[in-house]
Amino acid sequence: MTEMIFEDATKCFACGPDNPIGLKISFNLDDENHCFGYFEANNNHVGYEDTVHGGIIFTALDDVMANVLYLNKIKALTAKCEIRYRNPLRVGQKIKLTGWIVSQKKRLITLKADARLNCDNKIIAECDAKFMLV
C-alpha cells in the first residue's frame, strides 16, 4: 500500500480523545491488517428503550475500518459502506470491534469489520466498505 501524509484526528467523533461528546474508542493494530477496539454504550447512545441506536454501531464499525488505514498512516475516506445488523446491542454491553483489509485496487481499498459481544463473541453487526485514497 502507498503511505500517505495524514492529519491529526483528535476531534474524531468515534475515536478522538479531544471530542467532548465523542465515543472515545481507542483503536490498536494487532498486525498490519487488523485493527480492534472496544466500546460500551451508555444511555446517551439509545435508539429505542435500552437498545443502542444503529447509527452509533455503524459509526463504530466505519471507524474501526478507517483506523486500519489511519494507524498504518494511509489517508483515505469512506466511499461506500454497507452494514448488516444481526442482533440488538443493549446499553452496558461491551463490544469488540474488528476491522481488516480485504484488497486494494488502484485508489479503492476494500475492508470488512464486525462488532461482537465481548462476553460471548455473539455477532451484533458486520459491514463491508470501500475506502478511497486521498
Structure description:
With 134 residues, this protein is mainly beta. It has one domain: Thiol Ester Dehydrase, Chain A, CATH 3.10.129.10. Helix content is 13%, strand content 43%. It is built from one helix and eight strands. It has one helix spanning 54-70, and strands at residues 27-29, 34-40, 46-48, 51-52, 76-85, 94-105, 108-117, 123-133. The strands form two sheets. A six-stranded antiparallel sheet has the order 1-2-6-7-8-5, covered by helices on one side. A two-stranded antiparallel sheet has the order 3-4. A hairpin with a 4-residue loop joins strand 1 and strand 2. The chain is globular.
CATH architectural arrangement: Roll
Strand content: 35-45%
How would you classify the helix and strand content by structural class? mainly beta
Spans where pLDDT lies below 50 across 5 or more residues: 1-5
- What would the average pLDDT be, to the nearest integer? 89
The span between the termini is 13 Å
**What is the C-alpha radius of gyration, as a whole number of Å?**
14 Å
| Order of the strands making up the biggest sheet | 1-2-6-7-8-5
